[in-house]
Amino acid sequence: MALFGLPTPQPDDAERATACGVAMQLAVPEINARNRRAGIPEIAIGVGIAAGRVLVGGIGKGEGLRFKALGSPAIHASLLERLAKPGEVVICDRTRDQAGECLVLAGEPREIDLPDAEGPEPIHSVLGVGGGQLISLRSPSEA
Known about the structure:
Blueprint: H1 13-38, E1 47-49, E2 55-59, E3 66-70, H2 72-83, E4 89-92, H3 93-99, E5 103-113, E6 120-129, E7 135-136
Parallel strand pairs: 1-4
Antiparallel strand pairs: 2-3, 4-6, 5-6, 6-7
Helix pairs in contact: 1-3
């Protein structure tokens, strides 16, 4: 889990978090190439991103210090990660709203039931991030 906006929230947290998810997907082929050379199984990941306020606490000390995020956005991100197909970055509607016009989305949103939501919530598959990030899951010839 990666947290953006700590210790101080920034206006582009959702944009940067989404770009990070895309960068993670772009890193998978190189990781798999190294794994093949080392005789290690290949990986495939789905990335889920949810925006919102969470409570963060540190557990342990020194080198053993670990942080834990508590709250609906952490639960939603975990659920979105499980729903994401290999190679996919999935965001909630709130993340889309906070990131603004810089996102390139794939197709129509899907709807799912999220805990603490008042009904089905739209989720979006991301193809890329514009703005200050300029990162894409598709090559320019595919765009």
